[in-house]
Amino acid sequence: MIPRLPLRNTVETDVDRFLQALRHTDFSGEIRADFASRLLSSTDNSIYQILPQAVIFPKTTADVVAIFQLADQPAFQRLTFSPRGGGTGTNGQSLSTGIILDCSKYMNQILEVNLEAGWVKVQPGVVLDRLNSYLKPHGVFFAPNLAPSSRATLGGMINTDACGKGSRIYGRTSDHILELTWVLSNGTTTSSSSVNAQDLAQLKAQSDRIGQIYQQVDEIVTTKQSLIEQQFPKMPRFLTGYNLAKVYDPERKFFDLNRILAGSEGTLAVVTQAKLKLTPIPQYKELLVIHYDCFDRALKASQSLLAFNPAAIETIDETILELAKQDEIYPRVKDFIGDARAINLVEFVSEDATQLQATVEQLGQELNSNSISYYQTSSGSEIAALWELRKRGVGLLGNRPGARKPIAFIEDTAVPPVNLPAYIQEFKELLNDYNLDYAMFGHVDVGCLHVRPALNLQVPQDEALIRTISDRVVALVRKYGGVMWAEHGRGFRSEYTPLFFGEELYQDLRKIKAVFDPRNRLNPGKIVTPFGSEEEVVKVEAPLRGHFDRQVPTTMQADYEVVFSCNGNGACFNVNPDYVMCPSYKGSSERIHSPKGRASLLREWLRQLALNQEGDLDKPANILVKFWNTLIKSIGQYDYSQEVYDGLHGCLSCKACANQCPIHVDIPSLKSKFLQRYYTRYLRSPRDYLMGHIEFLTQWQGKFPRLTNLMMQNFLTKEILRTGLGIIAPQPLSEITLANALQSRNVSFCDRAAPRLRRDLNCLAKADPTNSVILLPDLFTSVYEAPLVLATYDLFTQLGLQVYVLPPLVSGKPLHVLGFLKKFETIAHQNIAYLHALQQFDIPIVGIEPSMVLTYRDEYASFDGGFSLKIQLPQEFLLEQGDRFPQLQCHNSYTLLGHCSEKTLAPASQQQWQQVFQAVGLQLKTLETGCCGMAGIYGYEAEHLATSREIYQLSWEQHLPTDSQAQSYYLATGFSCRTQVQRFTGWIPLHPIQVLQQELGVM
Ligand SMILES: Cc1cc2nc3c(=O)[nH]c(=O)nc-3n(C[C@H](O)[C@H](O)[C@H](O)COP(=O)(O)OP(=O)(O)OC[C@H]3O[C@@H](n4cnc5c(N)ncnc54)[C@H](O)[C@@H]3O)c2cc1C
Ligand code: SF4
Ligand code: SF4
Q1: Beta-bridge partner residues of 112
Q2: Taking a C-beta distance cutoff of 8 angstroms, is the pair 499, 478 a contact?
Q3: What distance in Å separates the CA atoms of residue 339 and residue 376, rounded to the nearest whole number?
């Protein structure tokens, strides 16, 4: 059995006292000191792992003031604070051993928009994509862009002065800030905007810390003007942290303190509100995908492309294009890429269509004359898909086979674009000196190159290369007049600051830190330490994640390999409610309830198991020991495994992460493995046994539907189920049994007395494979929705097929979800043998319910030597029957809401339904939706009902009509999805098969 995991890393006494005291102030936010919350803030997208003491989630500016006023008291002046947004930093900027101020959970409101004046006011935790989708209907957007726009926050962007695609014409975040509200480490709060000389004089005259800040900054940027001009390279991507060069405008009429705050990485103040400039969305866009046979040629070409003045040029190399082939994005872009081994994405934007066409045509002619192929598009969806490929690039790198993974530490250097080819040549030679593989891509139009060398930081020799390579790259960048941190900020690379600014300006930067934060309490060690203090900045070898990961023996890692590959890119924090990943995170706003959260918990769990291992982890304890363990846990004995359990228990097992995460971090499979081990120590609840074996029970209930309904559909039973077992009672069974329903069509099952396999084989031996289909219904559809199975039978028959209906199989899926892996394995082996035997007839086997079909294809594959059973989804099968379809005269239009697992594990499935409908002359619109919130077992667990409803409301409820006439045109493929709609609204969406069958039936 697994041992108890008592953690020794407890919260320090003064931190604990501070948190207690904070609870007695007006602070209205949330305070967390549990290990799981701390662990979740110990990583970002960097190579570092640093455990904070606690995590505080403020809700308002007043909360942040309350935190710092209390922290300013003598008893707490040792404590330090690091603000955090989306946690997508690539250099550990938000990591610290102090207290984390997470602004993303509650401070995420869009406060006010003024279209006439062209600004929007936001709290710092607003995610960029959310802001831009809110602004889109108004024809404006926040122009600075960055690859993780689906999860990076405005607070983080301001504090790293973020920019990305389009920075050539739109600039950086700091170019779009009108006003910031911020709180100092002593609790003082103020707002800053660009001011004229008169206002500046007044601000400087203030006798408080704010006055001192204005005085100090003005003194430096005025007295050191020529040194600043001389020292700061004239490059669009030159990032300082505290941007001395831009505090005054070129005419030196206006003074803008926000240029110092932008890019300050939380070291000067906590930003609590921002007023940001809006930009009109360009009316016309054209994107060219230019094809090359290698990265070098793509790179060289970018110099001549600059002459056409595009909004962006981004180069993607062969490594990423190759990895993308395994990703769900690839089917959407492959036709535009063709055989190219490297591409340049070149985007043009304009308000003038004629001028735009002229420029693009001119470029096209030049490409044609050089025999360079390209694809040109102005389609919004194609452009979005191609940029999505670019955005997913970094994440995809983690998917590279082998222990060495491309990692971020020298990844955003920039040199003047004219030096780029020579610089890259030397950069490659440098990496070749260490025989390192790497991927390269980036914003070549501004000379910024993303390079991620592949290293295995679990190996000490590779770890040592972090220092060696960083030092050499710094020297190289300086040689070519560039900068080490052109895009992603400094974080743990802060030690190189003096090399780029010179000693004199470096000391001036320290003076700025000193006047804002004299006691070095805000994100200490990043960028600079206060002038006069003995403290040092952080170093590149600060605690690396590899230190922790290598403590887990490789044999133990093997089973959970993918959790060690999660590189924290945060794609699973996507906040778009209509995107499938990750419903439990969106429904709870808790990062623990995300794939990254769960992968982090599991990594630490394996480490703790390795440190505490006593015997065979997989051998269950006897029932008395389990009883005792469960009892003392329930009366408060701490066990870290319980925190892991809590994190995983919130997972819906919807499988979205298995495919949408670029690394394919498949949490449901990991959860099953965890649960199996967890219950070697503890007792399972009766509900687990009941739900795990629900298919067996359903099988019996299906024989007596009326009796079952009588017993289940009454107040008393429902209350007993809810309060006694924590189960929400399911809907009534279909009163007609499948066998009776099929008998009404004169379908008879084969000789029921014979053993199943022989019976079915005998039956099928007589079939004509060219004209037959085997229908394999699942238990739930058969018992709860027998008319749907009948409709499928009717539809296939209407198409002229001989239909062989098999009695439903127990698939074992609920057992898998709950971690009864041994029993699941037995069932899987039986079913694999049975289905393999059926497959010998070469008759297509078709299921109805996506989650079951995909269980046969996905979960079973691990027991089937990786071989996937050929069970088809109905639309896959129907698509092959095109010539059997009659053409309908009516042109009804339907809307489909897909099932999560179907959309992610069979990415073409939605389009296939469209094609099937089109083939018979019907229209089908597919809607982008998130999860319905039911996901099989999850929605029936009483403790999940509220979140299940919340998830439903986030997306499905927004799309479904309330008008009963319109409802009949909305379709859903998932049994869970239809059930969820029924329980929250009372009506049941039809399955596409029912529509096809009805429409064809009334011809
Ligand atoms: C796959 C990937 C691709 C990336 N591509 C780009 C890119 O194209 N362009 C780019 O610029 N960056 C890029 N980054 C880096 C990262 O996304 C940016 O630095 C982003 O701005 C960080 O935002 P965040 O909300 O995640 O902030 P965090 O990482 O949480 O924090 C970043 C810094 O901001 C500070 N901070 C956060 N909120 C506040 C606040 N309210 N007050 C004061 N300080 C605060 C933190 O202390 C920290 O120093 C990429 C990262 C990843 C993972
Ligand atoms: S789970 Fe996947 S998507 Fe989430 S952070 Fe890890 S690698 Fe990225
Ligand atoms: S299975 Fe679904 S709910 Fe669970 S972690 Fe993955 S995406 Fe989130």
Answers
A1: 121
A2: yes
A3: 16
- Tell me how far apart the alpha carbons of residues 408 and 453 are, in angstroms, rounded to a whole number: 8
Q: Residue with the nearest Cα to atom 5 of ligand 3?
A: 595
Give the pLDDT of residue 237.
73
| Helix boundaries (H) for 80-160 | 128-135, 154-160
pLDDT digits (tens, 9 = 90+) for 932-981: 999 989 999 999 999 999 999 999 999 999 999 999 999 999 999 999 99
Residue 397 CA to ligand 2 center (angstroms) comes to 12
The residue nearest atom 7 of ligand 2, judged by CA position, is 566
3-state secondary structure of 81: strand
Bridge pairing between strands 845-846 and 772-775: parallel
Nearest by Cα to 549 from 86, 55, 48, 91? 48
Q: Which two tokens stand for residue 633?
A: 């846990």
Contact indicator for 490, 465 with CB cutoff of 8 Å: no
Give the largest CA-CA distance in the chain: 98
CA dihedral 312, 317, 319, 324 (to 10 degrees): 40
Q: How far is CA 732 from CA 339, 458, 582, 865, 872, in A?
A: 54, 54, 30, 39, 28
Using the structure block, give the residue that is written with the tokens 């399911």. 730
CB 692 within 8 A of CB 579: no
Strands (DSSP E) contained in 278-333 are 279-280, 284-292, 312-316
Please work out whether the CB of residue 599 comes within 6 Å of at least one atom of ligand 2. yes
The set of residues, in sequence order, having a beta carbon less than 8 Å from that of 100 and lying 6+ positions away, is 41, 52, 54, 55, 56, 81, 82, 83, 84, 94
Please tell me whether the peptide bond between 582 and the residue prior to it is cis, using omega within 30 degrees of 0. Answer: yes
- 119-149 pLDDT, tens digit per residue, is 999 999 999 999 999 999 999 999 999 989 9
The closest residue, in CA terms, to atom 2 on ligand 2 is 661
CA-CA distance, 16 to 286, in Å (whole number)?
56
- Cβ atoms of 665 and 565 within 8 Å: the answer is yes
* Ligand nearest to the backbone CA of 101: 1
Those residues with Cβ within 8 angstroms of residue 747's Cβ, 6 or more apart along the chain or in another chain = 793, 803, 805
Relative orientation angle of helices 595-612 and 667-678, to the nearest 10 degrees: 30
Cα Rg, the chain, nearest whole Å: 30
Alpha-carbon distance of 238 to 220, in angstroms, equals 19
Phi and psi at residue 451, to the nearest 5°? -130, 125
Tell how far the Cα of 961 is from the centroid of ligand 3, in angstroms: 27
Closest CA to 290 of 186, 368, 401, 227: 368
Q: Kindly give the number of the ligand 3 atom that is closest to the alpha carbon of 665.
A: 6
Please, are residues 239 and 483 in contact by the beta-carbon 8 Å criterion? yes
Q: Which helix (H) or strand (E) holds 147?
A: none
Q: How far apart are CA 447 and CA 421, in angstroms?
A: 9
The DSSP string of 770-799 is GGEEEE--BHHHHHH-HHHHHHHHHHHHHT
What is the reported pTM?
Answer: 0.93
Q: How far apart are CA 350 and CA 356, in angstroms?
A: 6
DSSP states of 507-539: HHHHHHHHHH-TT--BSTTSS-PPTT-------
For residue 277, count CB atoms less than 10 angstroms from its CB and return exposed for 0-12, middle for 13-18, buried for 19 or more. Answer: middle
Closest CA to 630 of 367, 409, 611, 622: 622
pLDDT in tens, 691-723: 999 999 999 998 899 999 999 999 999 999 999
Q: Does ligand 2 have an atom closer than 6 angstroms to the CB of 568?
A: yes
Report the alpha-carbon distance of residue 980 to residue 976 in Å, rounded. 6
- Distance between Cα 466 and ligand 2 center (Å): 23
Q: Record the tokens describing residue 559, joined without a space.
A: 């089973």
Which residue in 55, 151, 64 sits closest to 96, CA to CA?
55
From the CA of 87, the nearest ligand is 1
DSSP string, 480-492: TT-BS-SSS--GG
- Spatial distance between the Cα atoms of 328 and 930, rounded to a whole number of angstroms: 16
